[in-house]
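Here is the promised in-class demo. Please do not try to memorize the tokens; focus on the logic of going from shape to residues.
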């Protein structure tokens, strides 16, 4: 991972604060206080060019200018009627996608500061990720469904329900766009190979499933180099699974140190480090090779529930 000057590490907490950290020293370099109204910080995301920080606070999304000393947002996206549970930037920073417990997925235009499109998911949305081709979204929901949304056709083009009505908590697509992993409420992970649209094979081809945790699963995340899957859980651990070329998953190591639920995780660009956020108020930086905590970020007064890491070059 690069020097602290090139690394953006941000955490959000139920203490209503967003904190920026110096990755290597563990020092909090900046704090954004809660922007006023009641509501919890749910998710955060850093734009690919490192200009903007998107913070999902209850029903709204606040966009901050990272370089600005101001503690007030430069944009505010309103329209969701329940908690915003997911937020992700388009690869060129042109738009932002959000998912919400109100059962909708919304695309916001960052150039015009306006709502561009709304999809009706029909059930509370738990997570949304953007396919690397930037033309599709993959969402998961409380009703147990995983859906593919085609941005050009403005519609849901595929739906999976691997575990019946068991809620799917988190989804992750590999950086090459060929692997989809989903984790459900009961700790089980499902894996699909994503075939090219012109292929004779099904678009989503089931590969395997495995029990990752015996308790509530909160996040699944494929590393940028597609060699590892990180799964986070209520059991206080993060499990690291090695991924073979044919998409078999083998437990590589268990990261132990958090004292309460682990809510979120973010890999470094080179996949050598992992940041996690936990209800024990602490965020941790783990070295993947050793499985050890190399830095701990103390300062939040309540559960740290989301984190974002950007240590690559901005476009």
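The designed amino acids, position by position:
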């Amino acid at each position: 991972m690069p020097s602290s000057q090139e690394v953006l590490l941000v955490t959000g907490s139920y203490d209503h604060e967003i904190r920026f950290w110096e990755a290597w020293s563990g020092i909090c370099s900046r704090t954004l206080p809660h922007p006023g109204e009641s509501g919890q910080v749910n998710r955060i995301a850093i734009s690919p060019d490192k200009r903007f920080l998107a913070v999902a606070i209850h029903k709204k999304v606040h966009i901050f200018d990272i370089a600005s000393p101001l503690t007030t947002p430069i944009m505010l996206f309103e329209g969701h009627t329940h908690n915003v549970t997911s937020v992700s930037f388009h690869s060129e920073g042109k738009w932002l996608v959000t998912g919400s417990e109100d059962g909708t997925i919304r695309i916001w235009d960052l150039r015009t500061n306006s709502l561009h499109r709304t999809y009706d998911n029909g059930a509370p949305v738990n997570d949304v990720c953007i396919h690397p081709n930037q033309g599709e979204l993959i969402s998961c929901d409380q009703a147990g469904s995983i859906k593919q949304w085609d941005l050009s056709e403005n519609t849901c083009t595929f739906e999976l329900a691997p575990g019946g009505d068991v809620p799917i908590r988190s989804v992750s697509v590999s950086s090459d766009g060929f692997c989809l992993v989903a984790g459900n409420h009961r700790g089980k992970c499902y894996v699909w190979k994503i075939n090219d649209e012109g292929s004779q094979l099904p678009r989503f081809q089931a590969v395997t499933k495995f029990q990752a945790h015996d308790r509530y699963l909160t996040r699944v995340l494929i590393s940028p180099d597609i060699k590892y899957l990180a799964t986070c859980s209520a059991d206080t651990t993060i499990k690291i699974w090695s991924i073979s070329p044919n998409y078999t998953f083998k437990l590589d190591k268990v990261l132990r140190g958090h004292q309460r639920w682990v809510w979120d995780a973010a890999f470094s660009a080179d996949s050598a480090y992992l940041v996690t956020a936990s209800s024990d108020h602490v965020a941790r930086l783990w070295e993947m090779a050793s499985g050890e905590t190399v830095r701990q970020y103390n300062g939040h007064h309540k559960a740290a529930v989301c984190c974002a890491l950007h240590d690559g070059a901005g476009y």
